[in-house]
Amino acid sequence: MSTFDLSLRQDADKFHAARATSGLHTRLAAQAFGAQYPAQVDPSSSCTWSVLAEMVGRLRLRPDDLLVDLGCGRAGTGLWLARAFSARLVGIDFSPVAIEIAQSRAADFLPAGRAEFRVGSFEETGLPDASAHGVVSMDALPFTPDRDAALRELARILRPGARAVFTAVERLPSHPRYDRKEPTWHERISRAGLEIEHEVERPEERELWLRLYDLWEQHEAELRAEIGDEATEQVLLEASFVRPNIRHGRSLLLTVRACES
Fold first, then answer.
1. Structural domain includes residue 229
2. What is the pTM of this model?
3. Residue 124: which CATH number?
4. Rounded Cα gap, residues 15 and 20, in angstroms
5. Predicted confidence band at 9 (pLDDT cuts at 50, 70, 90)?
C-alpha cells in the first residue's frame, strides 16, 4: 500500500470511529435532511428515503440473493436493503474500523450468519466471479483511484443480468476542474461491459449537503468537544473544499446491468 493510500485509510478510520460515537453529528444530519433522513440507516452519506426506495425498485432482488455493498462504510444502506429483500449481504470497505463497526451493527438488521464484512477495495473485492445478485454503492464508488478498474471488477462479480445501483457526480462545463477529455460515467460503464439501465438526477442532494455544512460550522465548538479537534477539522475541511463548486455538478443515481451471456 502506498503512503497516500495508507493516509486515506487512516483518515477513513478516524472518521468512522468519530462518527460512530457522535450523537451530535447524527442530530445535525437529521436536521439537515429533514423528513428524508432514514434514522435507522444513520448514514454517513447522502442516503435518503427516496434513494432507498429507488434502490429497492431497481435491484429487484429475491429472498436469499446475495447483495454486495461496495465502499460500505458502517453499512447502514446495505444492511437496510438486505433486510428489505431478505437477502444475504457482503460489505467491502478499505477501512478496518468501518468494517468492525458494520459487523457490530449487523444484528440490528439481519439474523446471524446473513451478513459478512471484509476489508477490500473497489478494484479487488476478493469475491468470486458472477457471485452477486446485486451491488449497491452509496457515495463511495466515485472515490476509487481507478474508475475503469472498479467498473470492470463490478462487471466481474455481477451475475449475468444482475444490477448494480450507485451514486455518482458528473462535473458540468462550469466546474473549475471540468475536463472535456475526461470520460463520462456512461462511457466508462459501456467499456466495462455493463449496460446503463436507468439514470435519476438528484438535484436535491446539493441542498442537503449545503445545509449540513452550515450546521457543522455553526456547531463547531460542540463538535470539537464531542469528537475532538482532528475529526472536526476533517469535516470542516470537507465543507470548505466541496461547497464552492457543489452547484457545478450533476448528482446521479445510476442503475447498470451485467450483460447476459
1. no
2. 0.93
3. 3.40.50.150
4. 9
5. low
